[in-house]
Design a protein that fits this description.
- The chain has about 240 residues and is mostly beta strands.
- Helices cover about 0% and strands about 35% of the residues.
- It has no helices and 16 strands.
- It has strands spanning about 20, 25-30, 40-45, 45, 60-65, 75-80, 85, 100-110, 115-125, 140-145, 155, 175-180, 190-195, 200-205, 215-225, 230-235.
- It is rod-shaped, with a radius of gyration of 32 Å.
- The model has no long low-confidence stretch (mean pLDDT about 95).
């Protein structure tokens, strides 16, 4: 008998898509930050499972903040060869037009952008800054109080809105005060008072006389923790 050795070489084919080092990437940036744009926010990395083939991966993005038809309108971009993701514009976090997170997908395609594709999710969270003053949506609020009532009677509640993040320090924590009150002629003291934390307006004196003064108007201020203010008017009928 004769023997010989047969060596079979298995040629690698492109049967493994690129794989990212994590399924989801998450980072945080400060809203409305216009410094040093475009600014790098994170770097993604994918590897190709086809070990004997050239490592020639191309990255691209799709999803929120990505406008492939109008790239100048995009909020984010990626370096196609390094996987570095950049924010291109200042981003607003707050209502009515902003959003607290941006979510999009990063793709990695081997063979220079002509092969198989892998993907991962990206979430960019926006850190709030105190860029919204409180506001009273209605402008003028109407309330009623009983004639000849006692001091401390509840009249109405003034509620302001602040679009900043309630969870971020005191950016949206409001305190109420009366900026322009009405003074009682007999005692020289303010007729109304307001609870600082709730915006509840009460009588500070007793015995309001409808025949003498049927209507009152006071100006209320809401101030957030950063000192930004908004004003509203309370129109009170006896």
């Amino acid at each position: 008998e004769n023997y010989t050795t047969v060596v079979i070489h298995v040629n690698d084919v492109n049967d493994n898509p690129p794989v990212f080092d994590r399924p989801t990437y998450e980072t945080q940036i400060t809203e409305e930050d216009d410094r040093n744009l475009p600014k790098r926010v994170l770097k993604v990395t994918a590897t190709d499972g086809d070990k004997d083939r050239p490592e020639n991966i191309v990255y691209f993005l799709t999803g929120q903040g990505i406008d492939t038809d109008r790239p100048d309108q995009s909020k984010f971009d990626i370096n196609k060869t390094t996987g570095e993701i950049f924010v291109l514009k200042p981003l607003d976090r707050d209502e009515p037009n902003g959003r607290p997170q941006w979510r999009f997908t990063v793709f990695a395609q081997d063979e220079g952008g002509n092969g198989l594709v892998g993907y991962a999710d990206v979430q960019v969270n926006l850190k709030d800054i105190n860029d919204n003053a409180p506001l009273f949506p209605q402008g003028v609020y109407y309330g009623n109080v009983t004639e000849n009532g006692t001091a401390g009677m509840m009249v109405m509640t003034m509620t302001a809105t602040d679009y900043d993040d309630l969870e971020e320090g005191t950016n949206a924590k409001l305190k109420y005060s009366i900026e322009k009150n009405v003074i009682d002629e007999n005692t020289g003291t303010p007729i109304f008072e307001i609870e600082e934390e709730t915006g509840v307006i009460k009588t500070a004196v007793c015995c309001l006389d409808r025949e003498k003064t049927p209507d009152y108007s006071i100006q209320v201020v809401a101030m957030d923790g950063g000192g930004l203010k908004g004003t509203g008017t309370a129109s009170i009928r006896v």
